[in-house]
Every structure is written in structure tokens, then in C-alpha cells.
Write a structure and sequence with these properties.
Length: 264
């Protein structure tokens, strides 16, 4: 249930962004309050993943206009690592492999960096080992994940669970999941979704970027937004995702044209 008294966590106003000089985002307005789950849907090329990456500060994307604030803090001039320390987390659609870097070392460094940012006590290797193994049980991950190089040789489902494990450890204020359901079979999808649901609480917020309704069967959003041509053209409740599953996106085009004053 949406808490009417919850505070604004993320506020995006008139966001424009380019990639290699081509404008992709063309005026995005987006507000997320603590405790909420938002889903962003749309066809390929609509700007969904670009929006996710711009929020996280990906260096390939240039923000050319507008504001992005997390807990009132302007993120626009912050580097990706600074945004991460401020509480932004991005789970990638295609997590990269990092050969030679042990997963346990990577996870402990990330965890302790965030702990230090908030003035909290860091964990030594033995303390962290106990801590991370408890988190792994929730995601049905085998202990040998810790000894392997980051994502190297992982299946698609293993990579996505490893992303959600990072989220569980870092406890971000804002978690952005960019097509986390991509490439997952139904069993892996359920495990990942259950992990996300355990991590959702009244003090954080989750933004899901997805093509498909099926993820939203397991992670139920408070709001669904549809992107088209770099803008959010429709926002409604979870029933919007069901309508898209049944009718596709074509019925939104004329409505978007009226709202934006242009024919999409």
C-alpha cells in the first residue's frame, strides 16, 4: 500500500540526455517516493535503459538539460561512484565479467566503501564471510560463488542473482533494475523476484525497467510508466501493464500524440 505521508526520494525534472551527440531523452519528469516500486515499460529504443544509465551517471551518456535529485541532493555533477555512495544502485541488463577479481573481495570492498561513506564500521574478511553467506541463502546461491571471479562463467540467472546479492549488501536508497528479467527462465525469475521483494521496504524505492508483464506478476509495482521516443507518455497503476500485455503499445500512440502535441 502506498503511504501518502512518504517523502520524495527521487525527483527528475525536464531531463534531456544525449549519446554520441544524438538526443535520446527529450524531457523526462519522474517522481519516486520512499517505499514505492515503479515499473518503466516501452518498446526497444524508447529510452528506458538510457534513462536508467543516466540516473546512475554512466559516462557514455551526457545530461544536457534538467535536474536529478536524490533525497534533495543534486546528482547531475556526481560521478557514478559518488552516486553509488549516495545510495543509487543499478543492476545491469548484461552484467560484465571481471576475470581475476574474486567475487568475495569485490563484494567486501563495495560493502565497506558504502559503510565508510555512512560512518559505519567496516567488516574484516571473517566477519564479512558470515554476513554475506546469510544474504546468499535468501537468493539460493551456493557458497562457491564467493570463490569465483566476478560473473566469469556464470549463467544468466547466476549473474542476475549476483546483482541482487550486491543490492542486498549495499542496501541502496534507490535500486534501478535494468531488464533484470532478460534471459531468465521462470525458476530463476522467481528467485530473483523473491530476493527483490525481500529487500523492498518503506525507506527505499525500486525502479524496474522491463519489456514484459511477467516480471510484474512477481514484483508488483505501485506505478507503471510507458516511455516512447524519450518521454514518459503514460502513467497509471499496475493494471496498465496488463493492458499492454493484452493490447500492445499501438493504442497509446494517438493518446501520446495528443498529450505531447506531436504525432509519434
Amino acid at each position: 500500500m502506498i503511504d501518502p505521508n512518504s517523502k520524495v526520494l527521487l525527483e527528475v525534472r525536464d531531463l534531456h540526455a544525449t549519446v554520441d551527440g544524438t538526443e535520446i531523452l527529450k524531457g523526462v519528469d519522474f517522481t519516486v517516493k520512499s517505499g514505492e516500486i515503479h515499473a518503466i515499460m516501452g518498446l526497444n529504443g524508447s529510452g528506458k535503459s538510457t534513462f536508467a544509465k543516466v540516473l546512475a551517471g554512466h559516462p557514455a551518456y551526457e545530461m544536457t538539460q534538467g535536474t536529478v535529485r536524490l533525497d534533495g541532493q543534486d546528482l547531475s555533477s556526481l560521478a557514478p561512484e559518488e552516486r553509488a555512495r549516495a545510495g543509487v544502485f543499478l543492476a545491469f541488463q548484461y552484467p560484465i565479467e571481471i576475470p581475476g577479481v574474486a567475487n568475495d573481495q569485490f563484494l567486501r570492498l563495495a560493502y565497506n566503501t558504502v559503510q565508510a561513506q555512512h560512518g559505519k564500521e567496516e567488516l574484516d574478511p571473517l566477519e564479512f564471510d558470515d554476513f554475506v553467506r546469510e544474504k546468499m541463502k535468501q537468493l539460493e546461491m551456493k557458497p562457491d560463488f564467493l570463490d569465483r571471479s566476478v560473473n566469469e562463467g556464470f549463467s544468466g540467472g547466476e549473474k542476475k542473482r549476483n546483482e541482487i546479492l550486491q543490492m542486498a549488501l549495499l542496501e541502496p536508497r534507490l535500486a534501478i533494475l535494468d531488464e533484470t528479467d532478460s534471459g531468465l527462465d521462470i525458476d530463476a525469475l522467481k528467485i530473483v523476484a523473491n530476493g527483490v521483494n525481500r529487500l523492498a521496504n518503506k525507506d527505499n524505492a525500486i525502479v524496474l525497467v522491463t519489456h514484459y508483464q511477467r516480471l510484474l506478476d512477481y514484483i508488483v509495482p505501485d506505478y507503471v510508466h510507458v516511455m516512447e521516443a524519450g518521454r514518459i507518455i503514460k502513467t497509471s497503476g499496475k493494471e496498465l501493464a496488463l493492458a499492454l500485455e493484452t493490447h500492445g503499445y499501438d493504442w497509446l500512440h494517438s493518446e501520446a500524440g495528443r498529450a505531447l502535441g506531436t504525432q509519434l
